[in-house]
Structures are given as C-alpha cells and as structure tokens.
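User: We ran a pulldown and think these components assemble together. Before we commit to crystallization trials, I'd like a predicted model of the whole complex to look at. Sequences follow.
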Amino acid sequence: MASEAGEGSTAGMDDYETLISTTDVELLKKAWRNEKAAPEILRFETSLIQRIRGQIQLMEENIEEFAGSGIDPLTVSLYQMDLDRTQYLFRSYLRIRLQKIEKYMFHISKNPEVQSRLSEQEKGFARRCADDMERHLEESVLSKLPDNYQDIVKQSIISEESDMIPEPQLDSFVVCKSRRFLGPFQLDGRQSTISCILLVCAARNVSSVC
Amino acid sequence: MYGRKACQLVKELASGEKGQLTPYNSDLFDQVIAECSQHHLELQSLIRKMQEEGLDVQTTRNADHYGALIHHLSLVRNKRCLMAYMYNRAEIIRSLIWKVGPVLPQQIQEKLSHTEEEYFKKHSGALQSYMSRLDLDLTVDMVPPKDPYIQVRVLDDIGVVLSDDKTTNFARHSMHFLKRTDAEQFISRGLMEELTS
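Assistant: Here's a predicted model for the assembly, 407 residues in total across the polymer chains.
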C-alpha cells in the first residue's frame, strides 16, 4: 500500500494522481465514503474486499518481519499506522453495511433487487435478523392483539399493501462530487452541467447517474 | 380518550436519553393490549348489529359503521404505538451490542423484558456468526486511528491479562502504553480511559 504510493511520486504529479486513485486503498476509501453517505445499501465490492484482505495479511506479515529484523522503528511504526488506517476503513465499510441491514431488514427481505446487492454472508445475516425481529415482535405484541391485526407488515387484514415496513429515505439530500466533466444532463427535471463542483441533490437521482 | 395510554407509552420512549433504555413498562403495555381487545369486542358487536339489521356491512354508512370505524382506527393506532415501542427499544438494544459487547451489565439488564433479553441473545449470536464466517472481529477499531499506540490509565482492577507474548498486571490507577486494538475492549467497557494530553 505505502510502497505503491512511493512508485508514483517519481512520475510527475498527474501520473501520481492517476496512480494513487487506482490503488486498492483509494478504491476502498471511495467505496467507504459512498457507503457512508448513501441512505440505502450499495452493491458489495466482492473482488475489492478480497484483494484488500490479502493485502492486509501480507502487510501484517511484512511488519512482523521488519520488527524482528532491526529496521528503523520509526519506519515500522509508519507501516503499522498505514496498516491500521486500512484496517479501520475495511472494518468500518463492513460495519456500515451491517448497520444498514439491521435498520432496513424487512425492506431487504421483501425486495430481491436490494438483496442482490449483499454478499453471501450478509444475506445470511439479514435473514437471521429479520427472523429474530419477527419472532420478537410476534411474541411481545402481535400474538396478544385481536385476530385480524396480527400481521407484521400489514396494519390490519384490510390493508391493501404492506404498509409497515421502514424504507430508506431516498429523498434525503447528499453532497456529491463529479470525477470528471459530465456535460449537460437531466437531474430532477432540470438541465444541469456538471464540471468539478460539489452538488447537493436527492440521493434517488445519484444512483441513476453513477 | 382512546389512544391516550398508547401515546403515553411512546412518550416514555421518547423522553429517555438518546441511546438509553427506560425500564420496560409492562403495566402500561398490558393496559394498551386490554384496550385493544376491548376495541375489538365493540367493533365486532357493532358489525354484528348491522348484520342483524340486514344491512350490507361493506357499503352502509350509518352511525354503527362510523362507530366501528372509530374502533378499528383506534385499534390500528394502538397497534402502531405498541410496535413502535418494541421496535425502537429493539433498535437501542442492537446499538448496545455494538457499544458494550455480548454481555450486558446488570443495570441495563434490569430494564429489559424477558422477550427483549431473548432477542438480545439471538441478535448477538447472529452477529457473532457473521463475524466468525468472515474470520474478522468488527467490534474493535470503532474510531479512526490517530496513533497505533495509546497511553491509558486503568480505572478498575482488571488483574493480570495475557496479551501477545507478555503478561501485564492492570492494577487500578496504573498507566500503560498499549496497542490501540488491545486497549479498545477495555475502554468501551469503562475499565480504562485514554490519556489524550
């Protein structure tokens, strides 16, 4: 991770920027930032996560070697810090996704498109979450209510659709930044030209552009 | 007034500090459930009355219909308040698992109902199973790291702890220079504090 950055610095600023922006750590940072800002859960970056895991392991082994072989302790602690930061990003990315799953468990279980964005282990977790919550609500509230009102997603038997599922607020505003000049395009029914400015718009519109 | 007790339940939930549980109010909860049964009985008797008078239940709009409608709406409102109460408490319980870990301290456990304790254990289990499938502990590293090692002071007697290749005696008021990930589990349980100066 740190060594890749070192290679770029000899090739001039532009090349350095491009090189830096394609390292796995940068990709992880971008995925983490997107996940943090978006109100709904985004697609799981399977291959990126796999590569990062491998790199973290490699880095840990390297640091152990360095620590034992008498390399300057300052250098070792710098590598250690780099590793810590990557590990934080990695764990935080997975954590944010888990917390979104916990929040919108029923929405996810009833919506196959959203379910397809989860990793295999996350799917298992989401299923268990929804089951546990269903059992909990049934035991504590629903079984004690009169017959026609015992459904967990409908208010009562005469409701036309499942009206009790919390859903992510796709109308909440997010700030996004375009990576390159995009030219004019439709956003919210108005023509906009986007260069490299920060833009505030509803999250719903962002997913269609990305 | 219909719905007042349910409203009280929800207000109790809202009046607690953010992220903290209030003790489970089983009395008020049972009273709201009883109110629901009462509404249901009244609703059924009104519908039955309309049927006995030979009126079409779906389309007739007389006083009985509106009476039944009010009972139905109050029931739905009560159900919504009860579900909100349980659901939001469950949300707080889940956040406690992240903050405190799989074992709850006594003062929090007293505030839970029996079903909530079950839910806590089950959800903890689900989380543990996910983490073990990934072979990764997600409950450490909760804040972005500034330094790899931090200075800590021990607040409560932890005793002798085995870490990596050495054993350290964490006696009360002693200060140590630890790896961040090692110290985090103690800090989150309030057994150590970080010295930031």
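The helical segments of chain B are 4-15, 26-52, 63-100, 106-109, 114-134, 180-188. That may be worth checking against your pulldown data before setting up trials.

User: Thanks, that helps.
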